Structure formats: structure tokens, C-alpha cells
Amino acid sequence: MTVVGVKSVLALDEIDLSDLAFWERPWAEREGAFHLLRHERPMTWFADPDLTEASPLAPPPGNGYRALVRHADIVEVSRNPETYCSGQGAVSILDLPPEMVEYFAGMISTDNPRHARLRRIVSAAFNPRRIKAIEDSIEEVAQRVVTRTAPFGECDFVTEIAAPFPLEIICTMMGIPPSEFSNVLRCSNVILSNGDPEYIPEGTDPVAAFLLAGQELTQLMETLADQRIREPLDDLTTALITTNIDGEALTHAELASFFVLLLTAGNETTRNSISHALWAFTEHPDQRALWQADPTGVATTAVDEIVRWASPVIWMRRTVTEDAELSGEQLHAGDKVLLFYNSANRDEEVFSEPYRFDVRRSPNPHLGFGAAGPHFCLGAHLAKREIDVIWRVLFERLPDITATGEPERLRSNFINGIKHLSCRFSPA
Ligand code: HEM
Asked: How far apart are CA 416 and CA 269, in angstroms?
């Protein structure tokens, strides 16, 4: 098996996780910096990024944050939501004004009792019959996406396969008409672009673009909700806004922010896992051969390893609600902590040979979906299923698919994104 190394080119004092330039460094150098932080300064304080120069609409910087980089600390924080909450200022680095939290964050930035209520309604809407329908649609969409590309022998894997696949599943699940798919994709790209110039052209105010994209999606969902009230259909949107067994339902505004959350938390993440997998298989053909030789037997461990390897969500924030001690460090009410899942997923205290991509890794207690706690990813099961199905279909229909260039990465400290990845395969 191939061992991927890390490069420690930065000294501790040169590491600044708030500087976008850090995130533009090659992957091995970033890993080297996190390796150093885990061993030398596992709870470093960093100043907040100042986005006000890029946009007058940006929230002002606050008091900075501690970067939690060890698996054990992130597990501890995630399971104590009373001490480390999600609702104060949202789960972003900068405190968002409450109206922005409503639009963009939804349940992920709430605490109990509101969080429990939202999670209850959403979980009830995902009843076994609906899950079965979603699972059938995963297979159908995977076949459709691959059929569209199969004759060409080459493509941009991200824009042709990895991006449309989860997007079409989420849109179909919600009952969004196909004519809106490309609009939804554009808005979702803008919201998670972190200002990347490919999605937000130079000279455009990134926060204004972000708000506009959120409003477009909100408008789309409010229109859909109105239609479903008048004419209920057998889809998730109807289930979410009509009363369920507990007599509870989402308001139209809650539905819209849930949809924005699904697109951000559920769509981009799955897309990037699938893209990182192609790059990993190209760099580690032995691992690909193992899964290809036994698609069912290796699927469960391979899918988890892909999520660990990709760590598509780099961090989430929590805010300290009362003075607390964590691994011997004193934290104070109001302090912000960022949970760096990417670093937890390479923690050598937990993973043997963490820089080895190993499709049979077991156990694999990665934190790609967050750690156990009230906010653990609601879509983990769905995401795993999507990754499994798309790779099974690709192995069946385009078995020699390989990346032909380096991934073009998203310039972001939040989403470990791949924007483009060229690939080649024998036309089918
Ligand atoms: C590989 C794909 C995915 C990854 C890596 C991922 C990762 C995450 C992470 C890190 C969190 C936050 C956990 C925390 O704060 O403790 C989260 C929450 C969430 N995810 Fe996912 N996710 C993925 C796919 C999905 C999918 C497919 C959906 C839905 C269709 C989804 C819906 C959600 C929701 C609704 C939340 C908020 C849960 C809450 O606050 O109670 N995710 N996800």
C-alpha cells in the first residue's frame, strides 16, 4: 500500500488557519501543519479572518477562536452541547446576525429545545417508505448520470458526474422540477464558494452574492411549499409542511432554510467525497483493485475510508456557554472553538498509519460526519449509500475510469472541495 507523506514546511508560529493562503498550500504541507499542531499546540488561538475589506456587508471580526485538532477533544466537545453550543452566533467562524442564521443555517445552528423539535419533524418525514423511494432514486439517478457521459471517453468528472448526482437526488427528493436543477446548483456553488473567483467573479461583493443565492433558493422553496399546500404530493416537501404524527410541521421559512442546509451540508459534501475518491483511486490503484474485485464485500469499509480521506467538511464551530476545562486548558464563556474534523481524521492516537488510504480500514472511527452528539449528520446513511451506488455503477459501466490531471481545488478553509478533475475511460 502506498504511504502518503506529510511535509512540515511551516514552523508553528507561521501557521495561520484564518489566512486563505494557508488553504492554498499543497495538501501535504497542510497536513504537515496539522500534524505539528496536534503534537505541539492542540488548542491554538487564531484571530478571526477580517472579511470587511472584501465586503461592507460582512460581519466584523470577533475575539478569535481556538482550533481543536485532536480527535479526543472534538469528541468531548460534540457530546456536551450544554457547554459547547451551536446556536450562539451560528456554526460559522464569524457571528452571523440572527436573520442570516435563519436563512443559511437552519437546525445546524440551533440548540435545544428548538433543535430537538426541528430534528423530530425532519426525522419523522423520512419514514421507511420515503427512504425506500429515495434509495430507488439513487440507483436511477446514478445510471442516468453515467449514461449521459459514457459515450464520450473523457469528461470533467466533477461537473459531469460528481456534482449532478447528489444534486439531482436531493432535488428529486424535495420535488423540485428538473428545469430548476441548474439554478439550484449555481446557487449552491455560490453559497459554499468562500468567495472563490470561479463562482463569484472579481469585483462582485461576495456577501451580497451569498445573500442573493440564499434568497433565490428561499423563493423557490416558498413557491413550492405554497403549491404543496394547495395540492399535496407524495414528496418530502409535502411531508415536511403538513402535520405529522406529533402534530408538528415546519413553517415555510423553516422549510426554506432546511433546504439550503440540505444543499450545503448534503450536496457539496457528497459531491466532494465522490471526486476525492476518483483522485484517491488514481493515486492508489491497489486500493481501487481491492474494491473492484469485491464490490459488496469491501463497500462498507471503503465508503467510510473515502469520507475519512476526503473530510469534506473541514470544521464546525461551537461556542462555550460556561467556564470549562478541556484537556487541561481553561476555556471561558463566549470563547469560540473550531472542531477541525480533517485533523481528527489523521490523528495518530486513533488511526494507525493515518496517511494511508486503506479501503479495508477497520475500525474507522472517523469524524467526517461530525462526532456523536445532537448534530451528528442527519444524512450520513444517505450519503454513504450514494457513494456506494455511484462507485458500483462506475465500476460496472466505466471500469477503467481514471483521473488524467491534478484536481483543481476550491479555495476554501471550510469545504475540502474539488472544482474540476479531468478523467478518461473506455467509452461505453
Ligand atoms: C459525505 C457526505 C456528508 C458529510 C461529510 C457531512 C458532514 C456533516 C457534518 C460534519 C455535520 C455537522 C455535525 C456537527 O456539527 O456535529 C453535518 C450535519 C448535517 N448534515 Fe451532513 N454530511 C454529509 C451528507 C449529508 C447529506 C446527504 C444530508 C442530507 C440529505 C446531510 C444533512 C445534514 C444535516 C441536516 C445536518 C445538520 C444536523 C443537525 O444539526 O442536527 N448531510 N453533516
From this structure: 8
Q: What is the pTM of this model?
A: 0.95
Strands 418-420 and 422-424: unpaired
Strand order across the 43-46 sheet: 43-46, 65-68, 336-340, 315-320, 84-85
CA–CA dist 17, 169 (Å, integer) = 34
Q: Is 32 in the pocket of ligand 1 (CB under 6 A)?
A: no
- CA–CA distance, 115 with 90 (Å, rounded to integer): 13
Q: What is the pLDDT of residue 104?
A: 66
Which atom of ligand 1 is found nearest the CA of 374? 41
CA distance 72 to 30: 21
Query: Would you call the peptide bond into 128 cis, given omega within 30 degrees of 0 as the criterion?
Result: no
**What residue has cell string 494511508?**
356
Residues of the chain with pLDDT under 70: 1-5, 99, 102-105, 244-246
- Bridge partners of 340? 315
pLDDT recorded at residue 2: 36
Chain centroid offset of residue 341 CA: 11
Ligand 1 atom nearest to CA at 78: 16
Q: What pLDDT was estimated at residue 5?
A: 66
CB 370 within 8 A of CB 341: yes
Pocket test for ligand 1, best of 71, 237, 377, 391 (most atoms within 8 A of CB): 377
In angstroms, rounded to a whole number, what is the distance separating the alpha carbons of residues 154 and 157? 8
Write the residue with the smallest CA distance to atom 24 of ligand 1.
Answer: 266
